[in-house]
Description:
By secondary structure, the chain is mostly helical.
Amino acid sequence: MNRASLIFALLLAVLVPLSLLTGRVWIDPATTPNATLILMELRLPRAALAIVVGGGLGAAGAAMQGYLRNPLADPGLFGIAPMAALGAVASFWFGAMLPPAIAAWSLPAFALAGAALAMALLALIAGRTSSGAGGGIALFTLAGLMIASLAGALTALAITMAPNAFAMSQIVMWLNGALTDRSWQEVWIATPLVALGIGTLAMAARSLDALTLGEDAARSMGVDPSRLLALLVVGVGLTVGAGVAVAGIIGFVGLIVPHLVRPFTDRLPSSLILPSALAGACLVLIADSAVRILPFVTELRLGIALSLIGAPFFLWLLLRMRRGAL
Length: 326
């Protein structure tokens, strides 16, 4: 564990108990009635899901920025999250046609199917190229943008054709991302997939380090571009797809977190993936705690809160890039 991992692990250890106690009602375990029940059945699964979702998005962001060698890259730009969202929207249409026992799982299942479809499309379009890693990266980027655009258009069509205002409201609310009313069921769905995804991205770490020297140098060091692309597609697909399946679209975590982590590392991708996962968990946990205590009539959606943070941060990165400081 490097210094950055230790720092964010300690920060996470402080944030978790604060998150459990924070909310519209501050819980005092000694005096609050049913405190144990509230903590175990409501706040603990919500905090666990924030850690899992944030960890996956943070690791995916670090890997994507390393692969594309672009500090502005975000896993949400490459089609997997929009396709997972499209799958989830499809569950609002077709889930009711399934038997009740299966319908309860239709939303995460459809979302994961959407993420898997995006991964398959990325692999089909960008997985085979004779122009080396550089061509693979360009194809990967363009394919991701195409998939994201198509998924966004189909999602908008599904919203437009919603059978009633209530269904439309449900779809839009879900797309905005939230951890409200989540249970242990969502935690058990997302945790193994995100863990597998982070492990897959960690397997690509050394190849990503070599890629920082350039495509030709990486190939001379034995990096297989096709294998590296496959690891990225599978790793990002699992982490981002699982997150969208249980929490909706939560953007900008993968963009912000690597920039918070880099000052504590040697800036190589292999040094970023694990601490970015921990920092992503911290960021989502803080944001989720904040939306619970804001004095609004209804709880602010987590995806909206992070977008309000992420958009100015993205603008700040652009200004730094224009000055040549990035």
